[in-house]
Amino acid sequence: MDTKKQGFFSALREEVARGLSPARARRRSASNAAEVAAALRVAGGAGEALAPLMEGPDPEAGPGAGGGGVRREGWGRWVRGQLQLARAPAPAGADAGAARRNDLRLLLGVMGAPLAPVHVCAAEPLPHLSIKDTPIETSSAQYILQQYLAASGGQRLLSSIRNAYAMGKVRMVATEFETGGRVVRNRMAAQRAEPGRFVLWQMAPEMWYIELAVGGSKVHAGCNGKLVWRHTPWLGAHAAKGPVRPLRRALQGLDPLTAASMFAGARCIGERKVNGEDCFILKLCADPEMLRARSEGLAEIIRHVLFGYFSQKTGLLVHLEDSHLTRIQSTTGGDAVYWETTINSFIEDYRPVEGIMIAHSGRSAVTLFRFGEAAMSHTKTRMEEAWSIEEVAFNVPGLSMDCFIPPTDIKSGSVSETVELPQGEKSKVGLLPCHRAKVAALEKADDNVAWSGALQLDCK
Length: 460
What we know:
Layout: H1 3-6, H2 8-17, H3 22-27, H4 30-44, H5 75-87, H6 94-111, H7 136-152, H8 155-159, E1 163-179, E2 182-185, H9 189-192, E3 194-203, E4 207-214, E5 217-224, E6 228-232, E7 236-240, H10 248-251, H11 256-262, E8 267-274, E9 277-285, H12 288-294, E10 299-311, E11 317-328, E12 337-353, E13 356-372, E14 379-394, E15 414-415, H13 423-429, H14 433-445
Parallel strand pairs: 7-15
Antiparallel strand pairs: 1-2, 1-3, 1-14, 3-4, 4-5, 5-6, 6-7, 8-9, 9-10, 10-11, 11-12, 12-13, 13-14
């Protein structure tokens, strides 16, 4: 990152991404930062680049290394976790290693940085609560959202948040694979879960940036208010297809104002118990224009629906159900193939942070279902994620728009949500020339990374 261009707080964001709290990062002087940079160069060796996940001073050098020591919370745990991942013994056999890489790639592609179904701007006021000449489903939804904002801290306090920061940890695992009538379950899911950490920055309006490191791989994505981009080790940096949309992970109890704005056009469709708690259900559907903007070529997004479950007792959002369906037409005139992705997220452990109710833990269950062609050719993959929040801060001084500048090497052409296809599907749907060249170059550069066995949707 060009710190001269982006200023001091771009460097601040980088340091927080490495595990430092905002307060600790702000206290670092320019001379101390220079000492850390020198320690990094020494640790990495002259003329050698450090591994992507080993950024910062040598964690085994003791408190005197890097000028200031290792913080017991945050940064220290991040480094220890990455050391354990780096030193973990490789699975027996090349096939096991390739399967693990495929699973990890699928987990990061689907659950790493998915987006919300529609564009939303939290700076716009919510619709005025109205009963006259308004359908009961709409007026009920507006009332539920007013109660949600009040329970989360109040409209006035939430609107005063200029930016926000959160750091947490995740565990991801693929639990079940089904092909035709054969089901293979991961009987050691708890032991094989991939641990990781993430850092999320947000700035009003509509800007965000996230870094997620899991199992030795790192995905980062961001939005500068005009463009959503994503970087993965297997595709590099690329822009998302369609209009900008919020990060779904932020809706999971970290950004109440954006979550309320997301459901501003929703309808109340009934009630249901979630974990023994009575909840109102709000339903939001992406309109056809939005779906067309996200579709490309032979890949068409047919629907994208989001359900929000709001507790009748507390007024807070406790469950999100996200489902979207994509159809991929065959270039040979055969039957189309359909991909359905469903993400169920349970949002838990709300605690006040500077007067705002923030969810500090949760879990997601994901189902990736492929069907079409022959009746018994369907595949189903089930994945799970658990996360917890360790640090949250609002209105971090000095954070600027420069911190959300897209990478300089971002590709000029957009990439649709269906570009990351398994090896067998590429020839059927036909990639655009630029995408085909990009995929070929990546596969040639890293022969050890194999294509996953399922489609990775809605992760741009």
